[in-house]
Specification:
Elements lengths: L6 E5 L5 E6 L4 E6 L2 E4 L2 E4 L1 H8 L6 E4 L9 H20 L4 E4 L1 H7 L6 H11 L13 H15 L6
Parallel strand pairs: 1-6, 6-7
Antiparallel strand pairs: 1-2, 2-3, 4-5
């Protein structure tokens, strides 16, 4: 279904999420990152991501991930692999894709530092959906929602 106003925001990673923002009422649909386990290793399910994204044809904003200090090589590789899966699925569906740096969207939306910062700010900016960010483990949901809000709000000036 095509929705000219909706915007996807994606927080990549095993604990990330996909969020679809409907700007007219700030409604949010959130999907926890679909993962599968193969030989005791978790990976993002490309097929399930595609099923989710096909529900609404809308621009996609994905957080542009990068290596972080003290992150192991295997962890960095897996994170990058997941990012690549998300980019590939969106491109394969011929969706408009924009990557956004964490620093850019967090600064623009005035997100406090720390994991709870995203949950706190998402609750402030999207109060009708605050219950979706209530648990500590909902930081991926909050970040995906904020990325979608950033994409909608700053789409004309995104990197």
């Amino acid at each position: 279904m095509k929705n000219n106003n909706a915007v996807w925001g994606i927080d990549p990673g095993i604990n990330g999420a996909l969020a679809l923002l409907f700007p007219e009422d700030h409604g949010i649909e959130i999907f926890d990152m679909p993962i599968m386990e193969v030989k005791k290793k978790k990976t993002i399910s490309a097929a399930l991501v595609a099923d989710i994204l096909k529900q609404h044809e809308a621009p996609v904003f994905i957080e542009n991930v990068h290596a972080m200090p003290n992150q192991g090589v295997t962890s960095m590789f897996n994170f990058g692999k997941g990012f690549g899966i998300l980019l590939g699925v969106a491109a394969g569906l011929q969706m408009q894709v924009t990557t956004v740096r964490p620093l850019a969207w967090k600064k623009a939306l005035k997100v406090p530092s720390g994991k709870d910062g995203s949950r706190e700010r998402a609750t402030q900016l999207l109060p009708a959906s605050s219950q979706k960010f209530a648990r500590k483990k909902d930081d991926g949901r909050a970040e995906a929602s904020l990325i979608a809000l950033y994409g909608f709000t700053f789409a004309q000036s995104v990197e």
